[in-house]
């Protein structure tokens, strides 16, 4: 993954989201050790302090836990937690933005719902 | 531990004031960017730290010593800029061998690895290198010396963008492997901001700010929209920059005071833009003459 | 932060560095001495007298030109060591002003040893050429056939004078660093001194040259050079290290 430094999203949030995605994709399994701040700094070419801040978000959200002297590990139920969080927060925020944009463009609620259905079906078809 | 401490540091050359009452400190093992416009006093500050210059007033301490003419400090510092000179009798290969004797942490493997990677000719002389290659070679010395305090003054001048990228990567990798205090002065903030931890921003010889990059990234917000709406939202905000980019449209940069983007987005017609560090530094150090556009309006 | 960075260990490191960097200076010295040797071959003075029965033609040969050229060479060598360029080279790496001066002086002393030996060897070459160029019976000078102690004394005396000259050159170099005008002021001061008191230069020259005891002579020169070198170090402290 290449970081998007022009994004409104700060890099440390991009780091924590990338780690969450790794957990969702089961590239990082529950109970496994997470990359250290130095490994992340090396991988993404960023200062280790930025990487540490990204890792701290995971600790604050109890997605990861610290083992003294050993580093960070993926918490049990981390995957569930991330799924839940993304549904309730990320999805909601995205929808918020969509609805605002729709209002700008005078798109009615039913039209928007139709559009969502349509995109849903397209993606489903692509999968098959 | 504090590695560098400056107290009311002032340096004047005759009547010109290069540094004016600068107080700052730099902590151990931090990678700090020294940013500022031409003539803001960056090089003067770095030379004071390296002990080449004597402060006109105030005090500077490096590793708790006065660095001026100090052998102790000199042995723990390497200062990389494009004025570095080596005897004409030495080939590049000789220089790497000879310089190694001066620095006890010298990493010969790294030096030769980089030397080969950048395809230097070992028999060439330092003086006959192009400006960019000289910078690259000096950079190799700066990295391989692994000095407890490493100072790079505009290290990338003359380098092409591919080499600059390689340099930043090499700098970060070696810093991770062997943490040390590094100061990097640069014009190209956008290229280095990701690897920096702190930024010391100078304006006319004074400290404009000294903060972590993480804080600075959230220091400001850009607002774009119809002039009236934007002006309304600006009330009570600290305005850093405004710019009318089209008839009736206004772009404003304000200090971020804990407002979330959502609070702004709820407002129709308003668009929120991130402010790059480079732009932020330009706004903070800008003169009050209304920007370059102002010249053309007259 | 490492602590074992004492003055002498760094100055000696710089000395070795400079020795390697200036090894090509040897060629310039040899070149100059060969040049001086060629000048000497025509003799520095000749006179002839003719009477009815006798025609005498006397030609003096001496290694003076070789030694003079060597003196000029060491003067410029010491001047060069104080240039901005060599200072920048020092301050590119670990140094302070004192260690830089010490290593410079060390380098000068090494060159002086080399220069005084080689100039006396050149004197030999001159003698050998004379030996083969002229009939032996024509050579009528005492001291033509060298005695070891004389050679040694010659080398040491040349070396001591070179040391004194080097210290003067070094001082001039530092003064020029302080202000370029000293390029003119330095010789003007010497000249002015001569005007004010014509005996001054002669006296100061006699101070060294008229000393008959080799030991006292050596002590006088060494002390004087030491004073001039220290003066240079002190004067350089007035300046900033590197602009």
Automatic annotation (TrEMBL), chain A:
Residues covered by the HTH gntR-type domain: 9-77
Any coiled-coil regions, as ranges: none
SMART domains: HTH_GNTR
Alphabetic keyword roster: DNA-binding, Transcription, Transcription regulation
A molecular-function term among this protein's GO annotations: DNA-binding transcription factor activity
Top-level taxonomic group: Bacteria
Record's protein name: HTH-type transcriptional repressor YtrA
Protein's organism: Desulfosporosinus acididurans
Organism placement in taxonomy: Bacteria, Bacillati, Bacillota, Clostridia, Eubacteriales
Gene: ytrA_2
UniProtKB/TrEMBL annotation, chain B:
Gene3D superfamilies in the cross-refs: P-loop containing nucleotide triphosphate hydrolases
One term of GO molecular function: ATP hydrolysis activity
InterPro entries in UniProt: AAA+_ATPase, ABC_transporter-like_ATP-bd, ABC_Transporter_VariousFunc, P-loop_NTPase
ABC transporter domain location: 4-229
One protein family per Pfam: ABC_tran
Keyword presence, Flavoprotein: no
Entry keywords, A to Z: ATP-binding, Nucleotide-binding, Transport
Keyword ATP-binding: yes
PANTHER family linked to this entry: ABC TRANSPORTER ATP-BINDING PROTEIN ALBC-RELATED
Protein name from the UniProt record: ABC transporter ATP-binding protein YtrB
Native organism: Desulfosporosinus acididurans
From TrEMBL, chain C:
Segments passing through the bilayer: 21-41, 61-81, 102-132, 144-164, 171-193, 213-235
Superkingdom of origin: Bacteria
Keywords: Membrane, Transmembrane, Transmembrane helix
Keyword Membrane: yes
Name by which UniProt lists this protein: ABC-2 family transporter protein
């Amino acid at each position: 993954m290449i970081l998007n430094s022009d994004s409104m999203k700060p890099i440390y949030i991009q780091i924590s989201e990338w780690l969450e995605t790794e957990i969702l994709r089961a590239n990082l399994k529950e109970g496994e050790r997470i990359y250290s701040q130095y490994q992340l700094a090396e991988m993404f070419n960023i200062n280790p302090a930025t990487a540490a801040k990204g890792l701290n978000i995971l600790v604050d959200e109890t997605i990861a836990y610290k083992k003294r002297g050993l580093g960070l590990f993926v918490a049990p139920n981390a995957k569930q937690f991330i799924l839940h969080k993304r549904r309730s927060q990320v999805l909601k925020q995205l929808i918020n933005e969509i609805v605002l944009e729709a209002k700008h463009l005078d798109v009615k609620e039913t039209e928007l719902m139709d559009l969502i259905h349509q995109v849903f079906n397209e993606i489903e078809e692509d999968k098959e | 531990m504090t590695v560098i401490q400056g107290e009311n540091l002032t340096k004047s050359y005759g009547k010109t004031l290069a540094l004016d009452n600068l107080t700052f400190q730099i902590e151990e093992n931090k990678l700090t960017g020294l940013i500022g416009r031409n003539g803001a006093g960056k090089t003067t500050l770095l030379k004071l730290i390296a002990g080449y210059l004597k402060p006109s007033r105030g005090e500077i301490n490096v590793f708790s010593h006065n660095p001026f003419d100090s052998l102790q400090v000199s042995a723990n510092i390497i200062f990389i800029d494009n004025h570095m000179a080596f005897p004409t009798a030495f080939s590049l290969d000789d220089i790497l061998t000879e310089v190694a004797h001066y620095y006890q942490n010298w990493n010969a493997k790294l030096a030769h690895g980089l030397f080969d990677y950048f395809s230097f000719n070992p028999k060439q002389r330092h003086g006959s290198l192009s400006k960019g290659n000289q910078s690259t070679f000096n950079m190799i010395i700066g990295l391989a010396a692994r000095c407890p305090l490493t100072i790079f003054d505009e290290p990338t001048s003359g380098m092409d963008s591919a080499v600059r990228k390689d340099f930043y990567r090499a700098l970060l990798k070696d810093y991770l492997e062997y943490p040390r205090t590094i100061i990097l002065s640069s014009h190209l903030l956008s290229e280095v901001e990701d690897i920096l931890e702190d930024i010391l921003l100078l304006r006319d010889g004074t400290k404009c700010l000294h903060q972590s990059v993480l804080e600075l990234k959230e220091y400001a917000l850009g607002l774009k929209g119809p002039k009236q709406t934007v002006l309304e939202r600006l009330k009570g905000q600290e305005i850093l920059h405004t710019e009318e980019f089209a008839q009736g449209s206004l772009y404003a940069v304000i200090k971020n005071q804990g407002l979330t983007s959502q609070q702004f987005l709820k407002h129709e017609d308003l668009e929120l833009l991130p402010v790059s560090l480079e732009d932020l530094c330009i706004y903070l150090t800008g003169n009050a003459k209304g920007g370059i556009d102002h010249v053309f309006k007259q | 932060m490492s602590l074992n960075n004492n003055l002498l260990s760094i100055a000696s490191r710089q000395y070795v560095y400079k020795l390697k960097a200036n090894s090509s200076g040897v060629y310039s010295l040899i070149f100059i001495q060969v040049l001086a040797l060629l000048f000497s071959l025509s003799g520095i003075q000749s006179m002839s007298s003719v009477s009815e029965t006798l025609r005498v033609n006397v030609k003096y040969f001496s290694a003076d030109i070789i030694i003079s050229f060597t003196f000029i060479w060491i003067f410029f060598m010491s001047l060069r060591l104080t240039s901005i360029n060599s200072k920048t080279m020092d301050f590119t790496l670990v140094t302070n002003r004192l260690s830089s001066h010490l290593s410079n002086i060390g380098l000068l002393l090494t060159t002086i040893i080399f220069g005084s030996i080689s100039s006396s060897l050149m004197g030999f070459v001159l003698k050998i050429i004379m030996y083969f160029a002229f009939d032996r019976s024509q050579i009528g000078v005492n001291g033509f056939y060298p005695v070891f102690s004389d050679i040694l004394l010659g080398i040491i005396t040349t070396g001591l004078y070179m040391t004194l000259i080097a210290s003067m050159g070094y001082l001039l170099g530092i003064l020029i660093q302080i202000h370029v005008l000293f390029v003119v002021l330095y010789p003007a001061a010497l000249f002015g001194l001569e005007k004010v008191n014509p005996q001054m230069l002669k006296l100061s020259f006699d101070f060294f040259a008229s000393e008959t005891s080799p030991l006292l002579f050596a002590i006088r020169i060494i002390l004087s050079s030491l004073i001039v070198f220290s003066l240079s170090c002190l004067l350089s402290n007035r300046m900033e290290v590197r602009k």
